[in-house]
Design brief:
GO terms for molecular function: endonuclease activity. The chain is an alpha/beta fold. It contains 19 helices and 21 strands.
Length: 546
């Protein structure tokens, strides 16, 4: 029998279960001992919101399991991952958890550490704790706050809470019973996490609580933990010792649909202002540079780039005549003049080809793409994109070639087919990757080839043309799903001091599943159309842009 007693109630359950006295004890500590520290709630009891109480605090501290080594029941969870949008009360919730582990857990010699990227970040939670101690009639008598060293001491049990720097090699000697890990997304790697986690091995009921907002794909360690936690959330048996609480809008949800905001913001309408989110949403909708921050910090979505370029709500308005058949779309543009752009990737990755047809079926330029991928790369990209690539193969948007490297003959054949169907005026191509194939492509298509350097000056004309046409709604992408995915992924870079120049920043292909190849291919095609589409046809010649 569990046997835990609190407030006159004894738990008589056996096996893994929710121990009500334990859950009641944690809740009572929050609501009767702790207090709010800011604004109009300051000094009031820290009454937990329903989602904090029922979805985090009670299960986190109440779930128990039998431990054969200890010969008694212990907390089920040793690691907790809490991921919610910003300004949903993470800091005060973490402050309560830290103080509960320090005082409420009844552990002699407890060592609680507040960790983050640096001491300044970790001190944010400490400052809330220190203020909570100062304002609490009970805690202020029990604990000693040493602000100059960011330390809180419980002399009665020889326990302490301490902020530590994010230098894992300097923290291997700690023996934490509790760890508060704030904004894990800022961690450059997993060294500090591993150092503190392995240090908990001798404790009977250790608890590491990590709280964060969604990051971007550059947050490699945090993204890996996030992905693992999603799997645990779907299948708790995968890691029964890990508690996961993730609230976010799905990637395909409309980030500006107010009815969905509560999914990432459980405090909305409680202590988080709805009007403040409305104001931020309006700014993000009107300024593409702010949309990524809105998605990341308010919708709690892991974003594909740090500096978003394409306003996808405007991109969606450029669909034109939508179709689910790439072949039908090509046939509708048969015998029309076209300008090509080829982003010939490495032999083991995605290759994109785009033709810009000025006399498109919607009365303005249509962009038509082809994509190729070696069979050996399919599983890698599928695993990181929820099986999208296999679906695109089935739907006819993507051609997979046999083997681990791209079959260039397949590319030559498809380009020759387009050359016979369309009147391709010329082809712009990536000078670095396309030069070895230039002669074969030129021979098979009969079109002159123009190399384009993938530099700021080489890529700016086409990128600027795409954006101008997107804002004016004077081109059609016809709903090509791979192109839409690439445009949603793309980030752009600007050289220092010259914001008018830009180029797409390609993701690290071996580490992440994002690709943007449709964008440079489209950029080169539209640049070719803009530069040479209105000029009389000239003899075949080479021209280097850049």
């Amino acid at each position: 029998m569990c046997g835990r007693t609190f407030d006159g109630r004894t738990c008589r359950k056996r096996g893994s279960h929710l121990c009500v006295p334990r859950a009641d004890h944690a809740q009572a500590f929050a609501e009767e001992i702790c207090v709010h520290t800011k604004d109009r709630w300051a000094r009031r009891p820290f009454i937990l919101a329903e989602w904090q109480r029922e979805e985090i605090v009670r299960p986190l501290f109440g779930e128990v399991r039998w431990d054969d080594e200890a010969a008694h029941y212990v907390r089920r969870y040793r690691i907790a991952w809490i991921e919610i949008a910003r300004k949903n009360g993470k800091s005060e919730l973490l402050a309560f958890v830290a103080l509960y582990l320090l005082v409420g857990d009844g552990v002699e010699g407890a060592e609680i550490y507040g960790a983050a990227k640096d001491r300044a970040q970790a001190a944010k939670v400490f400052d809330v704790e220190a203020r909570m101690v100062a304002l609490s009639p009970v805690l202020s008598k029990r604990l000693v706050v040493k602000d100059h060293v960011k330390r809180i001491v419980d002399e009665k049990t020889s326990s302490f809470y301490e902020v530590i720097a994010a230098d894992a090699t300097g923290n291997l000697g700690h023996n934490p019973s509790g760890v508060i890990f704030d904004e894990v997304l800022t961690q450059p790697d997993g060294r500090l996490w591993d150092a503190l986690r392995t240090g908990m091995g001798t404790r009977a009921e250790p608890l590491m609580v990590a709280a964060t907002t969604a990051g971007d794909t550059g947050s490699a360690f945090a993204k890996a933990e996030h992905d693992e936690c999603l799997k645990i959330q779907a299948d708790p048996a995968r890691a029964p010792h890990r508690f996961v609480y993730i609230r976010a809008l799905s990637r395909d949800a409309d980030p500006f649909d107010e009815s969905l905001w509560h999914l990432a913001n459980p405090a909305l309408g409680d202590f988080l202002s709805v009007q403040s989110l409305r104001d931020e949403a309006l700014e993000a909708r009107n300024d593409p540079s702010k949309e990524n921050s809105w998605r990341q910090f308010r919708c709690n979505q892991w974003v594909g780039q740090s500096h978003r370029w394409m306003p996808m709500h405007l991109y969606a308005l450029c669909v034109g005549t939508a179709t689910d058949s790439a072949r039908w779309l090509r046939e509708q543009h048969a015998r029309k003049p076209a300008w090509g752009g080829l982003d010939l990737a490495s032999k083991m990755d995605l290759t994109a080809w785009c033709v810009a047809v000025p006399d498109g079926i919607d009365g303005h330029p249509s962009l038509l793409w082809r994509f190729w991928l070696p069979e050996g790369a399919l599983a890698f990209l599928d695993e990181r994109n929820e099986g999208k690539f296999s679906r695109w193969v089935e739907q006819g948007w993507l051609r997979v070639t046999d083997g681990d490297v791209i079959d260039y003959e397949s590319i030559y054949d498809d380009l020759a087919e387009d050359g016979a169907l369309l009147r391709i005026a010329d082809i712009s191509y990536d000078e670095w990757s396309g030069e070895p194939a230039r002669e074969r492509i030129q021979k098979r298509t009969g079109a002159p080839m123009y190399p384009v350097q993938q530099t700021y000056r080489g890529m700016t004309p086409g990128m600027t043309e795409i954006m101008a046409r997107t804002k004016a709604r004077t081109w059609s992408h016809h709903g090509n799903p791979i192109a839409s995915w690439c445009f949603d992924n793309v980030e752009v870079l600007h050289p220092p001091g010259d914001p008018d120049l830009l180029r797409p920043s390609k993701p690290e292909r071996g580490k992440v599943g994002l690709r943007i190849d449709a964008v440079p291919a489209a950029s080169m095609a539209l640049a070719g159309l803009a530069l040479r589409g209105t000029k009389a046809k000239k003899p075949n010649r080479m021209m280097v842009l850049g």
